[in-house]
């Protein structure tokens, strides 16, 4: 599902809301999650999962074309850990 499909689904299920308002709500939620994660905070959505940031240390990698050693700098990457409810649903264990 992409963002526009999510917005359309929410708008369809809530006919009392204008499409532009639903779009603004969804964008605000995503923007707040992005802002929190970029500030180094953890975002937890109960039953769904938690977003956090993990640091990957500097290392020496290899250029796959030439085999030459390449220094890879330390970087921060987003990480998502599924919640128990989502994991159970994915594995057919409806609660």
Oligomer: single chain
**How many domain units?**
2
Can you tell me the CATH superfamily of the largest domain? IHF-like DNA-binding proteins
CATH topology-level name of the largest domain: HU Protein, Chain A
Q: What is the architecture of the largest domain at the second tier of CATH?
A: Irregular
Give the low-pLDDT segments: none
The helix tally amounts to 3
State the order of secondary-structure elements, H for helix, E for strand: HHEEEEEH
The whole-angstrom Rg is: 19 Å
Shape: elongated
Derived structural class: alpha+beta
Outline of the structure:
The protein is α+β, with helices and mostly antiparallel strands. The chain contains three helices and five strands; from the N terminus they run H-H-E-E-E-E-E-H. Helix 1 crosses helix 2 (19-38).
Structural commentary:
With 95 residues, the protein is of the alpha+beta class. The chain folds into 2 domains: 1-41; 44-95, IHF-like DNA-binding proteins (HU Protein, Chain A), CATH 4.10.520. It is built from 3 helices and 5 strands, in the order H-H-E-E-E-E-E-H. Strands 1-2-5 form a 3-stranded antiparallel beta sheet. The chain is elongated and about 60 Å long. 0% of the residues are buried. The mean pLDDT is 94.
Secondary structure: elements and pairs:
Blueprint: H1 3-13, H2 19-38, E1 43-45, E2 49-56, E3 59-62, E4 69-72, E5 75-82, H3 84-90
Helix pairs in contact: 1-2
């Amino acid at each position: 599902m992409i963002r526009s499909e999510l917005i359309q689904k929410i708008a369809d299920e809530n006919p009392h809301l204008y499409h532009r308002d639903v779009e603004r709500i969804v964008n605000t939620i995503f923007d707040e999650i992005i802002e929190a994660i970029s500030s180094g905070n953890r975002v937890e959505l109960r039953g769904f999962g938690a977003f956090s940031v993990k640091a990957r240390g500097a290392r020496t990698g290899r250029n796959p074309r030439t085999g030459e050693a390449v220094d890879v700098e330390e970087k921060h990457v987003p990480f998502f850990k599924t919640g128990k409810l989502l994991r159970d649903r994915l594995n057919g264990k409806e609660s």
